[in-house]
TrEMBL record:
<dbReference type="GO" id="GO:1990204">
    <property type="term" value="C:oxidoreductase complex"/>
</dbReference>
<keyword id="KW-0479">Metal-binding</keyword>
<keyword id="KW-0408">Iron</keyword>
<dbReference type="GO" id="GO:0016491">
    <property type="term" value="F:oxidoreductase activity"/>
</dbReference>
<dbReference type="GO" id="GO:0043546">
    <property type="term" value="F:molybdopterin cofactor binding"/>
</dbReference>
<dbReference type="GO" id="GO:0016020">
    <property type="term" value="C:membrane"/>
</dbReference>
<dbReference type="GO" id="GO:0051539">
    <property type="term" value="F:4 iron, 4 sulfur cluster binding"/>
</dbReference>
<feature type="domain" description="4Fe-4S Mo/W bis-MGD-type">
    <location>
        <begin position="1"/>
        <end position="53"/>
    </location>
</feature>
<protein>
    <submittedName>
        <fullName>Nitrate reductase</fullName>
    </submittedName>
</protein>
<dbReference type="GO" id="GO:0045333">
    <property type="term" value="P:cellular respiration"/>
</dbReference>
<comment type="similarity">
    <text>Belongs to the prokaryotic molybdopterin-containing oxidoreductase family. NasA/NapA/NarB subfamily.</text>
</comment>
<dbReference type="GO" id="GO:0042128">
    <property type="term" value="P:nitrate assimilation"/>
</dbReference>
<keyword id="KW-0004">4Fe-4S</keyword>
<dbReference type="GO" id="GO:0046872">
    <property type="term" value="F:metal ion binding"/>
</dbReference>
<keyword id="KW-0411">Iron-sulfur</keyword>
<keyword id="KW-0560">Oxidoreductase</keyword>
<keyword id="KW-0534">Nitrate assimilation</keyword>
Amino acid sequence: MTLTRTTCPYCGVGCGVLAGADGTIKGDPEHPANFGRLCSKGSALGETIDLEGRLLAPQVGGKDSDWDTALSLMAEKFGAAIRDHGPDSVAFYVSGQLLTEDYYIANKLIKGFMGTANIDTNSRLCMASSVAGHKRAFGTDTVPGTYRDLEEADLIVLVGSNLAWCHPVLHQRIAAAKEARPDMRVVNVDPRKTATSDLADTHLRIVPDGDIALFNGLLAHLAETGALNRAYIDSHVNGFDAALAQAQQTNPLDSGLTEAELDEFYRLWSGTQKVVTVYSQGVNQSGCGTDKVNAILNCHLATGRIGTPGCGPFSVTGQPNAMGGREVGGMANMLANHLDIENPDHRAAVQGFWQSPVMAPQPGLKAVDMFRACADGRIKALWVISTNPAVSLPDADGVAQAIANVPFVAVSDIMARTDTGDLAHVLLPATGWGEKDGTVTNSERRISRQRAFLPAPGQARPDWKIMCDLAGKMGWSEGFDFETPAQVFAEYVALSAATTDFARDLDLSLFADADYAALIPTQWPANDKRFFADGKFYHADGKAKMLPITAPAPRAAGDFTLNTGRNRDQWHTMTRSGKSPRLGAHLAEPYAEIHPDDAAALTVTEGDLIALQTPTKTAVLRALITDRTAKGQLFAPMHWTRQQSSAGWINALAAPVVDPVSGQPASKMNRVTATKF
Ligand code: SF4
């Protein structure tokens, strides 16, 4: 069996995979992300490539149709909305599952030709707060860390990250490094005890959103104990005094930790030069997620613990191509190639390069606001691509109603039946993993190829091709006459070269003459390039910025705090991973973790059903009684959809509360009551 060298479609680790059409799956020993390792999800990929449930032909009005009919109708509806109601009456909602080429074309089409930045993505639920925090501190959305830093660190602090389940191969790499260097210390900061806590030397059980109190307290401790790097601050950082003054106003006990726990952690952090702070959704998915990111970055900047091996902050992305989406400007508040949509010179340069008729004049609607605009009638034509917001966004019932309120909805997907697809006027069959070609960027800025090893089923087309075909129908053939994803990638690289006048981190010159077909996994701007090694950042004066961060008030006692997240063996709404019997055996039904004392107070025993309620919604789940979840808190996986388990579907309970800076929903801080069912 011939094996094709490709990349796993699940998490942001971006493992290399050798895949065969007969379902053979092996870890790629030559891929620098995983060196042959795979986790349970990656190794079960061969069980997920059948065609059961696939959408194989365009559908119009619920009936099989053809591409010409479907795309002609879309062109007419989007064109009419723009003509009659203006560009901001149309919107795209896309996905971190898209390949970079898909993402690039989607952004070019809507921003440069339709004339609106109403394009947002399910990556808004993943890392938008990290993007905003990076831009505030560094002047760019730069992730300075590499996976090798994790192996070279003497202290790894994992904040709000269940790496063992959500980025398993990174967890394996840390475990191997720790075994080889027993002096390496791992601290896990998380309200919940997880499989990741089991690897850690110390689990710091903060209260939900206690991160700012913890890291503000660390900054104050560093100042008190003379552990700041004054020379680094003076040369490379603005905003130190205000940030420290605010930190000194914070009571670190508001983190929920004891004085002894704080003292031990602060001594360990300040006494270790090579510290990597890894953070993920527990930081990002919060009403103060951007501030949490900056509270962490403040500590690294105040000590110069950034830009050197084994050192620095490291945001790990949940999705396989959240990073590639960021690079091509895949969100409503971004422009292509890390350029700034709010900068008129940047907009003009991109429009000139694209030779496009218009350019979105300002940022568009972020995810939650986009669906509010669907609900109140502002959006007249919506295209949902490769994602399922009717079940995955907070207030998912409200989102479903909002989508149903849009006069024209198109959905591109690999599956025939999804909660969002059921609301569409036009369904477009897309090729899936193993059937399409393109690139993805993993959490350490490494661009890898996804390669096809299966034929496109039925009439399915790659997403970038569907978008180009629609553009052609709307009269823009010239800007979208790509025949291969290699040509799209080449234009993306050329845009980078054409805009070098604008100082920023993204530099793709390494890829200018790359052989796309044979492209090996490569980090931008160069393999082993270390950002910020020279103390130069991307604000106008070349300095980084520390921000004064106010800790949120401790939460009042009362209802339960419902935290949602991932299971080890499932991915998102289980469209692909749900096909594998092996993966389904891990945790087979919706459940809610509840502390033994809370279970006793509710007279709930193991296996009972409990009802979680908001004023308008109820979910019924199996009780899993464990002290891994703290008293007053609950944890439930977010995978089950309305179609799979109408009772156990949890996202209906999530309130659409967002971080005011990033617009990222606070998916880990939902208020519910709980009763025995
Ligand atoms: Fe795929 Fe992530 Fe597992 Fe690697 S760690 S095999 S990228 S799911």
